[in-house]
């Protein structure tokens, strides 16, 4: 119950800040919350690092434009999320289509506050329960419900936002919330989160926290086909499954879940996130969130090795992005490099544990 009292106190502060600022998904309320956090250096939305005194978290962001035009990736790290000292929000958004960079930035703008508002409502409702006990699973269920509602709300708002044409454009949305020892991961699309944890012998091993939502995953393909969408590869792209309209060779989306892309929303594409949890322990060292520009050429094991071998945490994300750029040139010659972005979140307020064995970078 003490944990709940602390959380409710922080909730009261955040409610006060957004009071009268509009609905949960409104741009005005988002700007008010972000401005307040930015004023206190609690939000990072470009390449750089973020660490708040007293926090266990340390985050680094890096992003590099590919050879396809404007960089359609964008990121956010928000410390003391919702005025909670033990909470952090992170998100990475990989846009696609002619308006993809605008869609990604819009979803980055909307998602944190929509999530926060829905979480606040869940906490208020839970507080009416006299038998309330915010044990680990209960806290996760509150967040899961908030994530599901927030993603639905953001996708609805995006559809009616006249300044951006999202009919043939969209974005992935990989977001996490850390609340003390609870890690909640919500994934829409094919960006990926990987945790580096220590094994019994002290070596670092990767744990993939998300599923890449590609159209050829059986349950995804089944849903799309049942909705009269089509899934197949082009002759010059063997192994690359895409989603197509019933009677047109368009748009050829290489993922089965996304925000936007309303041309496909009646044909099996959804924006429903997969929401999972993990209890953070002293064994867990850092999390890598990255767009598919990283994972197309870097394995989970390689990513953990690259980040752990960085000379300091400040350079971890930049090192991973640079390694991915080199890997594109080596492994995919003649193919335009994708946008490449990564967030590295270190989970403890110290360098890697003493018993963790150094790892040699493979690239």
Please mark out the parts with pLDDT under 50 across 5 or more consecutive residues, or reply none.
18-23, 353-363
Going by helix content, strand content and strand pairing, the class is alpha+beta
Major sheet: size, sense and barrel closure?
A: 8 strands, antiparallel
Proportion in β-strands: 15-25%
Q: What number is the mean pLDDT?
A: 88
Name the overall outline.
globular
- Distance between the terminal alpha carbons, to the nearest Å? 49 Å
Helix percentage? 25-40%
- Rg over CA atoms: 20 Å
Total strand segments: 17
- SSE string: HHEEEEEHHEEEEEHEEEEEEHHHE
- What is the overall number of helices? 8
Could you outline the blueprint of secondary structure elements for this entry?
Elements lengths: L1 H17 L8 H13 L3 E2 L3 E3 L7 E7 L8 E7 L7 E10 L3 H28 L8 H24 L10 E2 L1 E7 L2 E7 L3 E7 L5 E5 L9 H9 L3 E4 L7 E4 L6 E3 L5 E2 L13 E6 L4 E7 L1 H4 L4 H9 L7 H16 L8 E7 L17
Describe this structure in words.
One of its GO terms (biological process) is negative regulation of growth. Its cofactor is Mn(2+); Mg(2+). One of its GO terms (molecular function) is protein serine/threonine phosphatase activity. By secondary structure, the protein is α+β, with helices and mostly antiparallel strands. It contains eight helices and 17 strands. Strand 7 and strand 8 form a beta hairpin. The C terminus is likely disordered.
């Amino acid at each position: 119950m003490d944990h709940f009292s602390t959380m409710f106190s922080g909730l009261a502060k955040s409610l006060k800040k957004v009071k009268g600022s509009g609905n949960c998904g409104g741009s005005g309320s988002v700007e008010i919350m972000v401005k307040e956090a930015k004023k206190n250096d609690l939000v990072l939305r470009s390449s750089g690092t973020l660490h708040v005194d007293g926090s266990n978290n340390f985050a680094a962001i890096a992003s590099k434009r590919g050879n396809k035009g404007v960089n359609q990736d964008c990121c956010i790290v928000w410390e003391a999320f919702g005025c909670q000292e033990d909470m952090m929000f992170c998100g990475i958004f990989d846009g696609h289509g002619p308006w993809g960079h605008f869609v990604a930035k819009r979803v980055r703008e909307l998602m944190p506050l929509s999530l926060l508002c829905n979480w606040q409502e869940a906490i208020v409702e839970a507080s009416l329960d006299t038998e309330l006990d915010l044990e680990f699973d209960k806290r996760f269920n509150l967040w899961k419900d908030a994530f599901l509602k927030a993603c639905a709300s953001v996708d609805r708002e995006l559809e009616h936002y006249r300044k951006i044409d999202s009919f043939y454009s969209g974005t992935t949305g990989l977001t996490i919330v850390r609340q003390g020892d609870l890690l909640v991961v919500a994934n829409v699309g094919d960006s990926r989160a990987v945790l580096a944890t220590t094994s019994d012998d002290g070596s670092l091993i990767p744990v993939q926290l998300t599923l890449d939502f590609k159209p050829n995953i059986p349950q995804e393909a089944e849903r799309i086909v049942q909705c009269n969408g089509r899934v197949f590869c082009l002759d010059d792209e063997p192994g690359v499954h895409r989603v197509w309209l019933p009677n047109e060779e368009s748009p050829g989306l290489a993922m089965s879940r996304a925000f936007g892309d309303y041309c496909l929303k009646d044909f099996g594409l959804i924006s429903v996130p997969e929401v999972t949890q993990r209890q953070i322990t002293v064994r867990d060292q850092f999390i890598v969130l990255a767009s598919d520009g990283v994972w197309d050429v870097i394995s989970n094991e390689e990513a953990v090795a690259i980040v752990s071998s960085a000379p300091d945490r400040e350079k971890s994300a930049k090192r991973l992005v640079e390694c991915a750029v080199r890997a594109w040139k080596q492994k995919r010659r003649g193919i335009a490099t994708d946008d490449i972005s990564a967030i590295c979140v270190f989970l403890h307020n110290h360098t890697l544990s003493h018993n963790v064995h150094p790892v040699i970078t493979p690239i």
